[in-house]
Protein 1
Amino acid sequence: MHTMSTRKVKDIFTRCAEYRTAEEARRCGYYPYFHVLESAPGPEVVIAGQTMLMLASNDYLGLAHDPRVQAAAAHALHHYGTGCCSSRFLAGTLRIHEKLETRLAAFVRKEAALVFSTGMQANLGLISALAHRKDWVFADKLVHASILDGCCLSHARMARFPHNDAAALAALLEKTDEDGGALVVIEGVYSMDGDIAPLPTLLATAHAHGARVIVDDAHGIGVLGANGAGTAEELGCLDEVDVVMGTFSKALAASGGFIAGTRNVIDYVRHHARSLIFSAALSAPMAAAVIASLEIVQQEPERRVRLRQVSDLLRNGLHDLGFDVGASVTPIIPVLIGSMERAAALWRTLYAQGVFTSLVIAPAVPPGGERLRLSVSAIHTDEHIARILKRFLQAGRATHII
């Protein structure tokens, strides 16, 4: 009688049991993630019973608690219900989705638009649908993780070029073969540095080599441009962008994402983006909130003016105190530290003083790029900024950073 021999594989959960980083950070009192907010979004929030000055939210225009946006979402909730209970591909496309897509396409001056349930899904679906195995995707060194993951899902060949370096992009494009197409993916505003891409130069470089260009403008939509249509509008090259990608979770005060381009490209992605086809559709209240936010963006340009004023006030104030704020020219202001320990110490000191910021360490930034990331809102007052600068001064001295 033969006995069955069983060879056991390594328990894949071992790495979970051995993971100690988060628990050690909690024990030392500088764990900066998953803090629970007990109040509505705003320039001040309540966390663990403490009122905090908020500098970690991307509610750039202060619309997340706007009564007009809330009313639109509430009306859609009563009309359509809480969720679509299906994917867009099957039974989840609502009339309000089509209305939103029409508005978005007109907003960024493209023929058509397509809405996704999250911004992450928009990039995953867009890039993996357009780029195939023999194609090339060229991405800026600092692009968002969703772009890199989309490239991986596409199975296309990928190369990355130094940040905002058109000459390096041209050199890569020169070396490509003619077996496949080329896609260049860049951002309008970079989410960790707050700087703006030189879009006209990068677009001209890509198009001269026959490549198409996707601009992820998650942090530019609603913030930049005469009408709020983003970085490309600000720089006068919106019509040259092949595909605009944007999100609703920043200036538009909701959740979700979209792409916009020519009608044939959008229709192709609609039928090939797995993140769209196999995901539940964006809820009607979210779609209605975005439509209301778009209207406010277009009707109230003074919000963008105020946002720029308050961003400059904080950025210049931090610089004058001796902090390194990099090349930021937007509401995203990095406070560059260059050490995980020192950045964590500054974050913890500010938190204890009632200022909530985002601690950014590797792998979100390269080692040596550790920082606090600040996001400003149009509804921050001058008094808020004065209090923030006072506490940065105290914390910077206490941690010997300034």
Protein 2
Amino acid sequence: MTLHVAIAGFGAIGKVVAQRLDQGIEGLVLAAVSARDVAQAEAAMADFVRPVPVVPLARLWEDADVVVECAPAALLRELAEPALGHGRIVMVLSCGALLDNPNLVDLARRHGGRILVPTGALLGLDAVIAAAEGGIASVNMITRKPPQGLLGAPHLVANDIDIAGLTEPKCVFSGTAREAARGFPANVNVAAALALAGIGPDRTTVEIWADPGVTRNIHRIEVEAAAARLSMQIENVPSDDNPRTGRLTALSVIAALKKLSSPLAIGT
């Protein structure tokens, strides 16, 4: 069976995923994309073997079995509601937005749709999911990013936190994963994914540091569980087109899509 894939958002992540699908992945075919700038998206597909239509977000489900969300978090409902309402699979990268839209899960349940959250720029989600089955006492994540990767975050703006010209690390946030997702919607979807995998957004704690001494997006995770103690760190190379996200995110989406159609699937 061939799965038709539509991509919502044609930026740093969506474009990479679309290119890989166009190059050919067994069992998958690119069906459509959605972009803020239609002309720019069409021009970007000029060298594709098989350019596809650029359609509005709300119509992506019409051409696809799977809709991949690579768009700003504020647009999640616009693309997810019609897709889930028609029984499609929606792969969500802006999973922080899921925390404020739990009814999307109910919508998927009623209409036979599915919401999938890829691992993204994190690691160890399989282990956290398994540990949750036996009970988890605490989950904490410390994120360090180059200051330019945090610029414009709502939490910084609302609290008048200046990170320009930093010469030493500065903790700009400490709180729950739910609060982190709202305050940094373009930066720490990893916190929401970790929370959904483990003990929830109100018990998962997060620190965010603007660190001029790092060149990579660093996430350190500590989990205390009945079955294991987990200590994990990942250092992601930021995307050339968008320093707020790492290069690994697009690759994680590709791996998750391949898992949908592969006769062999590795991982929980």
Protein 3
Amino acid sequence: MIKDVLVNLPAGGKSAAVVDYAVSVANAFEAHITGLAFAYEAVIPSAVFDGVAADLIANYRAESERLARDSVARFEEAARRNGLSAESHVLDAEPAGAGELFAQVARHFDIAVVPQTEPETEGRAEIIIEAALFGSGRPTLVVPYIQKEGLKLDRVLVCWDGSRAAARAVGDAMPFLERAKAIEVVTVSRQEAPRDELPGVDITRHLARHKIKVEFKRIVAGDIDVTSAILSYAADSSADFIVMGGYGHSRLREFVLGGATRGMLESMTVPVLMSH
């Protein structure tokens, strides 16, 4: 069961979608919820530091903390409206270090809820997502910036390719799958294949043993990429929740996302639970 939820609170007026969704998740599971915002330090290259007035740096820091406090206030109000057990924190961090700090905190929770990166904005949200996915050891639930509704599990898509990450995602998503009204296990391939060779057959049996009824759907992608095939099918089937493995690797302490994972994070239109 999910009893301890962590949500990243982006600064400014961009927290409404992720806060409302995270609160709805905590409400559904009667869970405690913690909101975490960051007050960012100004990053000034040493070569130009002497030319930057100290009061400008102080003003940047004060404004960042004000925005973080505003996000916390909105979160606390949403939690109060829903009668949730909740707490909030503002942590100081440099932009590059916020992701690692968030991942460390997320290890103490059942799930981390984070916002999708908005187009043409700073990449701080992406840093948080990657760190949570690869560094927390916990499932990461990414909420689209256009999300309007709370948690809805009328139709769930489980993306399955037989990989370790996909298996981990299915296991982490069980509390959601047990509440879903309809579930489709979806696999994407380039050509038709006999049903008994499909990797999704065994996972459907596994879920059936947990008394979770699913349907199996095989998508032939043809010339389009995997992400587009999944999102197209999600739109056609009116899916409201997606479960999938998160793929990537580390390079010099930086996370490098796999193509399908990055594509999903950029183009997602419904909440996506990812595990690595």
